[in-house]
Amino acid sequence: MSLSLNLSDLTVVAGARTLLRVPSLSLPAGSLIGVRGPSGAGKSTLLYALSGLLAAKGSVRWGQTDLAQLSAERRTAFRAAHMGLIFQDYLLFEELSPRANASLAALFSTSGDRAQVNARAADRLDRLGVPRDSRSVASFSGGERQRVAVARALATDPAILLADEPTASLDRPAADQLIDDLVALVRDSGKTLIAVSHDLHLLDRLDRVLTIRDGQLTDDTRVGTA
Ligand SMILES: Nc1ncnc2c1ncn2[C@@H]1O[C@H](COP(=O)(O)OP(=O)(O)OP(=O)(O)O)[C@@H](O)[C@H]1O
């Protein structure tokens, strides 16, 4: 499945400060979108608003569903069914293996067949080059942990993938490998990807790049110029 995104009059306010204002934005289903901008500009705030984890005014419509019109429980259910989140603190279960980390959340959040979820989690870990290891992820390197977090986000086969700096803790070769694998996995299945990143190697592979400055979105069509 694939979902389009339509934002209108999206505003996130904290106290007297407006953190984000997006009058309108439409992205077709299956788009691969990058978001960049200076530190503190509102990039993570945008991802949180798009996932419904943060209260925003206005409309965030994924396909036919406006997150703003849903109760908190239905928002959570929508997120579990349709979104994979790769946020900066990976929040892995330290004492569990990569395989358990990749499949557990999917087992709780989807009604899919258990064997199918486990097989998909194992496949994503393999495709992302995570060692087939039963040791706990506590002893994994930063890059391996990042790939486990990506595999976990993909284990539910979500229509939407939201990623915050997915290559941040990787060296160049590992980042390039992750970019190849992530872009292939997302394009193969027609997912919509929105990735906050400063990594030009990643931005270069996406369909469109948006820039946020002081909570305002502007479009970039050319990558390689920042
Ligand atoms: N709950 C909050 N209350 C007040 N200010 C907040 C709140 N959450 C975020 N901010 C502020 O909003 C601004 C945007 O934060 P955000 O995390 O979205 O920035 P960012 O562009 O992702 O930055 P970075 O690249 O450094 O991660 C920052 O100045 C931050 O301090």
UniProtKB/TrEMBL annotation:
Gene Ontology molecular-function annotations: ATP binding; ATP hydrolysis activity; transmembrane transporter activity
Q: Does the keyword Nucleotide-binding apply?
A: yes
**Keywords (A to Z) from UniProt:** ATP-binding, Nucleotide-binding
Family matches, as SUPFAM superfamilies: P-loop containing nucleoside triphosphate hydrolases (SSF52540)
Q: Where is the ABC transporter domain?
A: 5-226
Pfam families attached to this UniProt entry: ABC_tran
Provide the protein name.
Answer: Arginine ABC transporter ATP-binding protein
